[in-house]
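Obj.: predict assembly geometry.
Materials: sequence records (below).
Method: joint structure prediction, all chains together.
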Amino acid sequence: MIIGVPKEVKDHETRVGITPAGAKALTEAGHQVLVEHNAGQLSSFPDDDYQTVGAEIVGHATDLWRASEMIVKVKEPVEKEYHNFRDGLVLFTYLHLAPLNELTDILLKKGVTGIAYETVKDRTNTLPLLTPMSEVAGRLSVQVGAAYLEKEHGGRGVLLGGVPGVPPGNVCIIGGGIVGTNAAKMALGLGAKVTLVDLNLNRLRDLDDIFNGRVFTLASNSYNLERAAREADLLIGGVLIPGAAAPKLITKQMVSRMKKGAVIVDVAIDQGGCIETAKPTTHSNPSYEVDGVVHYCVTNMPAAVPNTSTLALTNATFPYVLKLANLGAEAALKSDPGFAEGLNTYKGKLTYKAVADNQSREFTSASSLLS
Ligand SMILES: NC(=O)c1ccc[n+]([C@@H]2O[C@H](COP(=O)([O-])OP(=O)(O)OC[C@H]3O[C@@H](n4cnc5c(N)ncnc54)[C@H](O)[C@@H]3O)[C@@H](O)[C@H]2O)c1
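Observations (raw structure tokens):
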């Protein structure tokens, strides 16, 4: 198969869909890999690294899309890429189609086989191509929060680990899922006092075991949250209610009672945020202040560390890329029902129920088209 890896064009996107390691494995399996000039540059993978493993560098995106049977990307295509769509082209990337009516329309009209990272499921019914980015964002949230706590960045000048004779900083993490667990690991590593808040008591029991009692666990209710927020130097939001907007667990009033110079990192901002005063920010202007509390609410945190993020993402996506290349899309999807859940558009039909419901469009099951 001829596989194309375009340079991402979405604002501030720094990752790339296939690494030189992936390109090597694909060429060794007999496939041809085309990489757009500088596609890996921002993730610290120069063209030379691809060329040495047998990939071909292509100067223009249009030529690359035209020559490829499958395109492997990171973010959903933006308007200037739409003209590259054509019947039967396989597109494997994050699509997040629910709010994107125009993109859905054109994928359907052009007959693109659109397979979305975010809806692929594994055998345990989890979302294996979302997990790595939550791991990155969770770990990064503490690193970023620690930096904003420095006086120079508007924080209250607290060193999370403290020093002998001075107590450590308080980190409160709301949501003990993938983001929360990874944030807790980092905060503990720095020597902070860590409190993990979750609604799910069984999850809190697991976390108590995982961290061997080194984190304080707290049941989620507004009384506990108010007290925890008041004590926090760094407050991290990592809740998720699948398929729904994040609940506003920390109200404006609770924020006003936090310590001056405390820091909020609302990782759940991509689902609207779980802190009432949080609003989406970008890497070029990542923070702002409300009531003396620094807010960092970047919706695509992993783009800050593209080398790590690309490696983490492609570790998870690559086995699927290889399967698509080796078997062809139809056989690859048929061989794995969880992978088939990734199929969103196929032969002009919308094959993902939640997107169809969201956009009031007709839904056709992937299994009826694949059989
Ligand atoms: N900003 C970014 O760049 C970025 C990157 C990756 C993930 N995220 C987002 O981070 C969020 C968390 O992702 P995740 O993978 O950790 O999800 P997850 O499903 O693994 O964990 C969510 C946790 O929230 C808990 N929860 C739900 N309601 C709660 C409540 N009322 N109080 C306390 N806890 C509650 C759940 O029990 C669960 O343990 C998601 O919104 C995800 O999209 C953002």
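Conclusions so far: Residues 133-134, 137, 174-180, 197-200, 203, 220, 238-241, 246-247, 249, 267-271, 299-302 surround nicotinamide-adenine-dinucleotide (CB under 6 Å).
To do: check interface contacts against the pulldown list.
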